[in-house]
Every structure is written in C-alpha cells, then in structure tokens.
Amino acid sequence: MAASETVKYGIIGVGMMGREHLINLNHLRSQGVVVVCIADPHIPSQQLALELAQSFDWPVKVFSGHQELLDSGLCDVLVVSSPNMTHYQILMDILNHPKSHHVLVEKPLCTTVSDCRKVANAARKRPDMLVQVGLEYRYMPPVAKLIEIVKGGTLGQVKMVAIREHRFPFLVKVNNWNRFNANTGGTLVEKCCHFFDLMRLFAGANPVRVMASGAIDVNHKDEIYDGKVPDIIDNAYVIIEFDNGARGMLDLCMFAEGSKNEQEISVVGHTGKGEAFVPESIVRFGSRTDGRDGVQTLKAEDKRIKYEGLHHGSSYLEHLNLLCAIREKGAKAPPVSLDDGLISVAMGVAAQLSIEKARFVSIEEVLDEHNC
C-alpha cells in the first residue's frame, strides 16, 4: 500500500477509548487515514462518536453490531475497543471473515489465556492480516527512552525491574462492565497487562512463575449493580521470576490520587540503574562506578507526537507504527504481536490465581490447555 493511498478505518466499540482512537486517527489524516464507519450497540456512545466524527468532517456510517460493519466491506483496518469480554468473539469473526482487515485490538487481547490462544491460532491462518495488540505504554516517551537505554547495554544485564502504578480508581464505563472480574479478566489482567509487557521487554526474558498478594480494600465497596458488589481488586503486590534469572515487581494502588507520578519504573542491571517517571516524562540513569553524582537526568519527548491524549502520546505512536507496518505490506511485523498479548494476559491470570490460591503460580500452569 503506497503512502499516498487512503487507508480506511472502522472502529468497533466507541465508548471512551473508541472515541480516543477516533481523535488519534484524525491527527493522522495527513498520512492518508480516514475513519469511515463505527459499530456499537450503545446508542449514546454511537451519538457521541458520530458528533466527534462530524466535527472532523468525516461522514461515518454507523452500525449497531460488528458483523454488519464487517459485511459492509467499507474499511481496510479495524480498531477493536469494545469491552474486554467481547474481544474474543469479535476477533474470531474478523479473522474468519472472507474480507481481509488489519486490526488493532485494545488490551487485554482477551480475558482468558484459552481465548488468547484461539485468536493467535486463527490469526496464523490469515497471513493477509496484521493484528496488533494495544500495549501502547511501551511508546510513552520516558518508557521508550528507558527501553532504549536498557537495550543499549548501559545498565548491563538486567536483574530487577520494579514498576509502581499509584493512581485513581477505575473510571465509570458503559453499563459498569469494568466492575467485575468476569468481564475484565480481573484488575491484574485488565490494567496490569501493560506493566507485565514492559517487564518482559526490560528483562529480555519470559516469565516462569508469579506470586501475588492483593485485595479490595477501599474502592467500589459501597457500589451495587443488579444486586452484585464489584469484585475487582484495587491494590496488589506482584513478584515475577523470569527464565534468565531476572525478577520483576509490580506495586499497584488504585486509591493513590495524591501522587506526583502515576507510573514509576526502575530497572537495575549488574552495572547500572535506570528510572522513568510518568507523567513527569523524566528519565534518570547512572552506573555503579559513577555513583549518585554521576546520575544523568533527561526530559523525554518524541517530536512525532501530534496528540498527547489520555496516554501521553503513546496511542498516537501505536497507530503510526501500525500504519507503517500496513504500508510495508507484510515486510514489517506488527510492533506488538499476539504472542506479546497472550503472555501479558497469562502473567495477569497467574497473578490473579496466586491471590486466590495464596501460593506461587507457574506460567506453565496457566498456559496448560487443560487449565484454560
């Protein structure tokens, strides 16, 4: 596909994240991007997305379901930003459809390891399609800079990765779908697959076993939906052991609005240490030999970003990278693969299971077909 050719997008699920994708794609219109259709059964979401598209002078076609959108044949690329529990069926319908569509699917890929595996297997039969998973935190400028420092060998062999996310509670979503594990996969799948993906990148290794402790201690305890109280945890510690001997630790708190930074990342190698801070967009790194006085501080930025949005420009960059891969016509793989998506979900599932069973859980255990 030549750079001058128009690439037509459809968005499946136009709640908060779907509309965020719509705005990002509008900022790529100079690259030949146009959104031509949307699908969502929720009328208020349809209306908000339609008004947004009209403000961009995009006359989008509106469908109530994804199958109608697929059958319309109107688009080349699909963004799947519907609720987590709908991803599996939508992706299978896309992958089994006669028309080829490239896909960006929001994280998590699916809510279970078994469903992720089925999607990955189906995608292997469609070499005409690129499927990218929306693990866009790797593109946040300070995180991307720290990845570059780590991969450049500045810190030596990575031994420890610590990620702290101290933030606000989950936002209100359509019909409160995100209040229940059955819909989301659990907090450590829904939210933390981002951080497990980053740990794999920093460690340059795959996870072996997971130990976690977490609970619902503050948030959502006084909420009731259809007679049910939410069961999503609001804080946790997770320790992950990797196959190269590295260790990762996640510190999650979702009642910590009084934080200067939402994410703080520390990567320690055998010769140095690096840190990234979001949203301050600061990166620090130093060596054991130079000590504290030798620590360097950088302000991370990416001049390509035209829209910061909800995720500090990372959603814009993930769209830009997928567009480049599409235009390379298969010469370039999607930057975030289905295997990346599957393993990030498996790590979250293992952590949720560890809390439930109060024991270490091996990744092999959750990847075993019999336990999926």
Which key terms come to mind for this protein?
372 residues; alpha/beta; 9-stranded mixed β-sheet; 6-stranded parallel β-sheet; 12 helices; 24% strand; Gfo/Idh/MocA-like_OxRdtase_C; Gfo/Idh/MocA-like_OxRdtase_N; Inositol 2-dehydrogenase; NAD(P)-bd_dom_sf
Please give the number of β-strands.
15
Q: Can you give the helix content as a percent range?
A: 25-40%
Report how far apart the termini are: 39 Å
Average the pLDDT over all residues and give the rounded result. Answer: 95
Q: Given the C-alpha coordinates, what overall shape results?
A: globular
Radius of gyration: 20 Å
Please list the strands of the largest sheet in the order they lie side by side: 14-13-12-11-7-10-9-8-15
Q: Can you write the helix and strand succession as a string?
A: EHEHEHEHEHEHEHHHEEEEEEEHHEH
Oligomeric form of this entry? single chain
Number of helices: 12
The major beta sheet can be summarized as:
9 strands, mixed
Structural class: alpha/beta
Regions with little confidence, pLDDT below 50 for 5+ residues: none
* Residues in β-strands, percent: 15-25%
